[in-house]
Design brief:
Length: 141
């Protein structure tokens, strides 16, 4: 029907004429209570936001001359983060002359991953970014 007829019907029913698909040929309209429609849409959006889970990225920083016990402490912290569902970014920071021995320090990240192998997998492999070498771990599914 024409838009004028539809508008008259909507006014008689004391409702609103809302274009559902304005780009369609011909445009699709609905006769509804617009206030109620907006309220329902906002409730749906709110419900969708409640069901979403935000994934945080937790960072664990280490230096190349980290000792075994300190590494184990960092591994335990990473386990806790992974079990909570967060991603873990493991960063190895190089300062001063430590930059000369970057390749020898890569084994620290490998050891870290080896200790978390049962619950974590690599999302982003170790990569040098400026003075930092970092990798991102996520929980195994």
């Amino acid at each position: 029907m024409s838009s004028k007829e539809a508008f008259k019907l909507a006014q008689e029913a004391d409702l609103d004429l809302v274009k559902v698909a304005p780009t369609a040929k011909p445009p699709v309209c609905k006769i509804i209570d617009y206030g109620k429609y907006r309220y329902e849409m906002s409730r749906r959006e709110k419900e969708a936001r409640k069901k979403q889970k935000t994934v945080e990225v937790k960072e664990i920083r280490m230096s190349p001359n980290i000792e075994e016990n300190d590494l184990n402490t960092k591994v335990n912290a990473a386990k806790k983060f992974l079990k909570k569902g967060d991603k873990v970014k493991v960063t190895l920071r190089f300062r001063g002359r430590e930059m000369a021995h970057v390749q020898q320090s890569k084994h620290i990240l490998d050891d870290f991953l080896e200790k978390l192998e049962d619950i974590a997998q690599v999302e982003k492999p170790p990569k040098m970014e400026g003075r930092n070498m970092s990798m991102v771990l996520v929980e195994k599914k």
